[in-house]
Amino acid sequence: MKPHTLSVLVENRAGVLSRVAGMFSRRGFNIESLAVGTCEEPDMSRITIVVNGDDTVVEQVMKQTNKLIDVIKVSDLTERESVERELALIKVAAEPGTSRAEILQIADIFRAQVVDVGTKTLVLQVAGDTEKIDALEKLLRQYGIKELVRTGKIAILRGSKTVKSSK
Amino acid sequence: MKTGARTLIEALQRDGVDTIFGYPGGSVLPIYDELYDSSIRHILVRHEQAAAHAADGYARASGRVGVCLATSGPGACNLVTGIATAYMDSVPIVAFTGQVPTGMLGNDAFQESDITGITMPVTKHNYLVKDADDLDRVVQEAFYIARTGRPGPVLIDLPKDVTNGPAKGGGASPGKVTLRGYQPTYEGHVRQIDRALDLIVESERPLIYAGGGVVHSGASAELLRFAEATAIPVTTTLMGLGAVPGDHPLCLGMLGMHGTQTANYAVTGCDLLIAIGARFDDRVTGKIETFAPNAAVIHIDIDPAEIGKNKFVDVPIVGDVKAVLQTLLQRMQRRGDTADWVARINAWKAQYPLHYQTDDRLRPQYIIEELSRLLDGEGVIASEVGQNQMWTALYYCFKKPRTWITSGGLGTMGYGFPAAIGAHFARPDLPVVDIAGDGSFQMNIQELGTVAHYRIPVKVVILNNMYLGMVRQWQELFYDRRYSYTELPPVEFVRIAEAYGVEGITVDEKDDVREALETALATDGPFVLDFRIEREENVFPMVPAGAAINEMIGVHRE
Prior knowledge:
The structure holds two protein chains of two kinds. Chain A is an alpha+beta fold. Chain A has four helices and nine strands; from the N terminus they run E-H-E-E-H-E-E-H-E-E-H-E-E. In chain A, strands 5, 6, 7, 8 and 9 form a five-stranded antiparallel sheet that branches. In chain A, strands 2-3-1-4 form a four-stranded antiparallel sheet, with helices on one face. The longest helix of chain A is centred in the middle third of the chain and has 13 residues, at about 55-65. Chain A starts with a strand and ends in a 10-residue tail after the last strand. In chain B, helix 3 packs parallel to helix 4, helix 3 crosses helix 17 (about 415-425) and helix 8 (about 190-200) crosses helix 13. Chain B is α/β, with parallel strands linked by helices. Chain B folds into three domains: about 5-165, 3-Layer(aba) Sandwich (Rossmann fold), CATH 3.40.50; about 190-350, TPP-binding domain (Rossmann fold, 3-Layer(aba) Sandwich); about 365-530, 3-Layer(aba) Sandwich (Rossmann fold). Chain B contains 22 helices and 18 strands. In chain B, the strands form three sheets. Chain B has a six-stranded parallel sheet, with helices on both faces. In chain B, strands 9-8-7-10-11-12 form a six-stranded parallel sheet, sandwiched between helices.
């Protein structure tokens, strides 16, 4: 059992996300994260899904996803050279004169940006792979995280290879 | 101005639709207005569920796409069981539903239901048409998707303003359907086919396990040629009955939970299992770990997702069953020697035939055997679900594909009678019989109105034991005979039939069976036969849930 990152190219139509998500829940596949957005083709969207399971399960996931008429291509990026990123916005407690400096130092180390400064809080924006964001979250917890928002993971192949419609 | 409704009817005619099963309502009024003087025949059912089942029965008996139509909200919702039934058994139907006008969508308008959302898990694909100019293309795509690849139901939801307002399209010449996300594989991979042939030649105890995919693909002739050329015995699933003639020397009958002893022993003993258009369903495999435990597996299926889903496969062949069998036959150079294996199977057949008590009681197996003798394969048999279905599967000799219409995957009680109505319109040249239980028949008994209305010559054989028989059988065997809510009070089915204007006979004696069946078959119109059978007759052989399929009860001892 390990997380697999699937890149799914779909028709950009109403209801496609619900078809994909519905099929996952109906067949008992566990979605760990999901991100959807437009892509280089105006009439297509790309969904990045992180799913947990052994190889047999992931094979079924891919085959069942492929069966959906609105799904154009499914690729497993897990074993391939790829770049994976998540984005997080973290609102951390930072009363003036207390730990602000420490928080800013940590942010600097993680190359997180301060995107909002309040009287009692700071909002940090950080991008990176899952482990990096987990690590930052863990460090900031001691100061008090007021709110945390994370996107699903997105991923892209390294080099000139692409996940494209072969059709 | 050409309306959406007009465009729809033209598109249906272009796709060769001759019959629609439906039920009118507010949001489909524009469509019904076009149907009023259309060449397409519309059969008014008495409940929308029956429209879906009838479209399904039509599709199974003909191999063409069945079509049903219902209004929005409750009408659409009533189709759902029928659509799910078709989905589980890979049957090509297109269901049209009315919908509230686009401007009211999502407002909880009168008779609004999100039918595309509701049917998403039970359709191969579905559409909500919001732009009338898409209608023509959507209808074309729907029929294409329903009948190609692994067939299945497609639903099209039509808001009333779309069918009422102007729409382009509907002309005589259909465009070519291209869907970049849907390109089924039809030809099997040649290297895999050659690997399969090597395994076939090397094996000593090969067995073909044929499913509904053989029937859907129209590959019965190819399957028979392949089995005969290789001298490999064939067992079929419930859905595969009729794919090879039931009385063929290489045919072992059905396998699985209520399979024949020979078929189940053959699966357990084989060293090569060739699954063709079958999906290793739990009712077939029993305990999956002990299913064909000593066999290498070749799996031929058009749906790649079925391969390796339940059972490890050594040689996967994705493709249309008919095309793959043709390639197998073309590339076959040598054949193995199965003489010893076939001899062993024949010994099992002789030693373990199906059996029931042959006394003077009225037993359901006898009724079905008599019907089988009378029709001699020249008829279409529909069934309900439960004991009636399993007795028919075991005791009726199916000789041709598309003559057996039953709900296998979903197991829908109430399916058989409306499906038989649909089958009649597909095969008006053949007698059509629905074999029912008293429980199942009452789930769509209102269709007596439909058969009376159109004088549809469907014969209903009710195996009336005043029980929900299969559930009672499980309660007898596994719940200490505690018949919890499975006993049904007596019903005078003939009197109900007569109230609708349908003839019928009640039969209590074994000696009267043949004459009653002959009378029903000789009658021009519909007919109901109420057989008061032995109440606690069971379906055997039986594999208890979770057991290996060679561990049967109610059978001859080894």
